[in-house]
Amino acid sequence: MSGIKSNIKDILDFIPSSVKLISVSKTRDLAEMEEAYEEGIREFGENKVQELVSKYDNFHKDVKWHLIGHLQKNKVKYIVGKVSLIHSLDSIELLREIEKRFSKENELAECLIQINIGEETSKTGIALNELQGIIKEVESCKNVKVKGLMAIIPTGDEEQCRRYFREMKTIWEKQKKQSFNNVSMEFLSMGMTDDYKLAIEEGSNVIRIGQGIFGKRL
Ligand SMILES: *Cc1c(COP(=O)(O)O)cnc(C)c1O
Q: Which terminus of the chain has a lower count of CB atoms within 10 Å, N or C?
């Protein structure tokens, strides 16, 4: 069995069935992705629009594509009808562009709101105090549905990681109890290769794993 296949098997054996695994295939070629596909993977994550679109055109049609990287407004038009979930909704301006472009093609955009939980200037995502404003705007959309929250936490030791994951879980739970048009808090996307086990323990139900499946990115 190849490294890719046994890595996937190990992860799937470990995670509960309630947790969704997204294989992060950025920088990986179609042959590598084919091995993941053969092992049953149908959800792939990309961080660049161009790479997602090119792989969409050249890979299996029953695959669901997740955009996990920052999305520039001028690139929204390229992913209409191709993306299954946008994990990186991070501004009202971007929301308006998504609503505009997806409406035009009569397509539905499912999105997660990305929160910059560590308040790092190097990272995208909204500040926590912007959450209600963006949700309010989502309520009046016709072609956008918010399905949950996403975070990339700061690097740190186990205790620090747990603290950020827990904070996200609390925000997500609180939001879950409220009722807004076009918003359902189904997904909490957090956890990558180095910290997905902690993330699941702290309540994540979507993990995004790249190197843990495909090996180290150079
Ligand atoms: C690259 C990337 C991942 C996967 O990271 P790994 O360390 O390879 O598991 C997850 N989420 C986002 C947003 C990424 O850009």
A: C
Three-state SS for 217?
A: coil
Tell me the domain boundaries of the chain: 3-214
DSSP for 189-211, written as a single string: E---TTTHHHHHHTT-SEEEESH
Q: Are 151 and 125 in contact (CB under 8 A)?
A: yes
Decide the pairing of beta strands 64-67 and 109-114.
unpaired
Question: Can you state the percent helix, strand and coil of the chain, rounding each to 5?
Answer: 40, 20, 35
Is the shortest distance between the CB of 24 and ligand 1 below 6 Å? Answer: yes
| CA 192 to centroid of ligand 1, rounded, Å | 6
pTM, whole model, 2 decimals? 0.97
What confidence tens digit (pLDDT) does each residue in 86-132 have? 999 999 999 999 999 999 999 999 999 999 999 999 999 999 999 99
Q: Please tell us whether the domain made up of 3-214 is placed in CATH 3.40.640.10.
A: no
How do 64-67 and 85-89 pair as beta strands? parallel
